[in-house]
């Protein structure tokens, strides 16, 4: 019962991306929260059973066929459910059945780990069913993106996700939003919203010992992008700039999802390279003369606070990015460009920085921004929000 005793930082963390994926916001936060309390990170049930069978038939890496609970650190565990029903993004009933399966596995894991009265942390509206299915003292909705906007080309999915978000928002105790724009959007459904922007692992990235030799062999100047390429990436602009400027080398490093690269192949100065491990992120960024963040203008990108910018700034690199409201506060340090002409001009200006007066000061100012926006600081902001919520609910935080 609320107020009877101190409560601890035990979190059932339902992620929207898998633990083994890219080291992004979810993994950075869950890892650090696990150092301060106990976290059981629950992988999403993707791909579905048919999707996993398709991967197996192609010889691709599959998800585990059976439930797996593994300890990643002293107080951090990862629960991986088996593949489940298809159409979870399309049919509400299928999603509910899948969530019920995951809830039964999470309930068993929580009992095994001794999570008696945990915080329920959900990252996607599809996971809203967990509020009724699992015991908890608090529900935190971690809104990382404008989720309905992901499905602008699949209206039936967009309607489902939008409806689930509308019904989930009023039922949670605290919303942690990944940008001020997302926070404003969520306030229409919940008064208890805290904006906690993205950040970088400054200590890891700034410790780069030197540039990747694989990338430096491509030639200079090297204009690079590091991260996932997907339907929100503005490759049309990058391709056209690369075609105009054959003397500039372009390297786009990372996995490709929901995107056909065929129209962008064939230029000798524009290369697509595979994902690198997180250990190699610093040396990869160190090889870039200019860092790119090309995004198509949409309701999705207008709500983004891109992690990549903080990572690029950790090495003091000049950044050329598509216009995003969250970047306006760094107007003196990040070039924002819209369209081919502006991107070409901005890259040229960024390349010319090194020979200009004040370039060293701009380099240090960029690193200072990154130092002020670390994941450790973000976790402290989140802890403040969780403690405040516990007190509002009648609990005494013991963390």
Description of the structure:
This protein has two domains: 6-199 and 374-397, Rossmann fold (3-Layer(aba) Sandwich); 202-372, Rossmann fold, CATH 3.40.50. The strands form three sheets. Strands 4-5-3-2-6-7-8-9 form an eight-stranded mixed sheet, sandwiched between helices. A six-stranded parallel sheet has the order 12-11-10-13-14-15, with helices on both faces. 44% of the residues are buried. With 399 residues, the chain is α/β, with parallel strands linked by helices. The two termini are 18 Å apart. The radius of gyration is 22 Å and the shape is globular. It has 14 helices and 16 strands.
Task: Give the topology, please.
Elements: E1 6-7, E2 10-14, H1 25-36, E3 38-42, H2 49-58, E4 68-73, E5 76-80, H3 92-113, E6 119-122, H4 130-133, E7 138-143, H5 155-168, E8 174-177, H6 180-186, E9 193-195, H7 202-206, H8 213-216, E10 222-226, H9 235-244, E11 249-253, E12 270-273, H10 281-286, E13 290-293, H11 307-313, E14 319-321, E15 334-336, H12 340-352, H13 359-372, H14 375-392, E16 396-397
Parallel strand pairs: 1-16, 2-3, 2-6, 3-5, 6-7, 7-8, 8-9, 10-11, 10-13, 11-12, 13-14, 14-15
Antiparallel strand pairs: 4-5
Count structural domains.
Answer: 2
Distance between the termini: 18 Å
Task: Please give the radius of gyration in angstroms.
Answer: 22 Å
Beta-strand proportion: 15-25%
Strand arrangement within the widest β-sheet reads: 4-5-3-2-6-7-8-9
